Amino acid sequence: MSDADSTADLVEGNHRHWDERVAIHTRSPFYDLDGFRAGAEPLDRFQLDELGDVTGLDLVHLQCHIGLDTLSWARHGARVSGLDFSEAAVRAASGLAADIGLDHRARFVAADVHDAVDVFGAGAFDVVYTGTGALMWLPDIERWARTAAGLLRPGGRLYLAEFHPLADVLDDGDGVTAVHDYFARGARTYEVSGSYADWEAETTHNTATEWHHTLGDVISAVAGAGLRIEFVHEHGTIAFRRCDALVADGGRFRYPDRSARLPLTYSLAASAPS
């Protein structure tokens, strides 16, 4: 079997994994769809501040899952498109858009992220957005960056908010001890039942594969795709309890006061040539 065939098999395993978890996520308190329908804001404050006013802009959300972040940008005035490889996730996102009356300015498409230019057309968007928990599912970060660049109009912006890759190597308990090699690349396949949204849920497709990309990998890929890096910001909060040491803080989690702190998420903005 070639490396390409092996990678395709791993991605297909992830496809089955995520398809199965859509139903778990749509009914879970973690995503709280009832709260979202009532107006709750799932985006971090720093995302809203950093990306700024999106009124009237065409925004595409790559790897959009069930569409909460996508539709949040629509609520803030953007015309949005969401793309995800899970057909079940796209159906859920489309249904949610109809529920909140935004189906006229939101569309969702099931496709591989690397096919996004073929799906939407080159230079179709003012903003390409990627939210937390997306990049580790991609085997080729450089190919992803080229795809993002291909979707942008002249002067358009790539904006991503993502889990900090340093967090991937830290102990699940104390959150500060390194237990994995930060510089190790390649596929990491593991078995996990349930979901981060409901660990007690019964699941069948429990094999998942992630690919570790360092912060330098991501920055270099974006720059290599011809985009100009505007900023890279590191943040001390995260949307879920990544390790036991974290404490709740206004719907997010952070390290306790007077403890050693490490970055938990980061954000990056880059612009296409005008």
TrEMBL record:
<dbReference type="InterPro" id="IPR029063">
    <property type="entry name" value="SAM-dependent_MTases_sf"/>
</dbReference>
<dbReference type="Pfam" id="PF08241">
    <property type="entry name" value="Methyltransf_11"/>
</dbReference>
<protein>
    <submittedName>
        <fullName>Methyltransferase type 12</fullName>
    </submittedName>
</protein>
<dbReference type="GO" id="GO:0032259">
    <property type="term" value="P:methylation"/>
</dbReference>
<dbReference type="InterPro" id="IPR013216">
    <property type="entry name" value="Methyltransf_11"/>
</dbReference>
<feature type="domain" description="Methyltransferase type 11">
    <location>
        <begin position="63"/>
        <end position="160"/>
    </location>
</feature>
<dbReference type="GO" id="GO:0008757">
    <property type="term" value="F:S-adenosylmethionine-dependent methyltransferase activity"/>
</dbReference>
<keyword id="KW-0808">Transferase</keyword>
<keyword id="KW-0489">Methyltransferase</keyword>
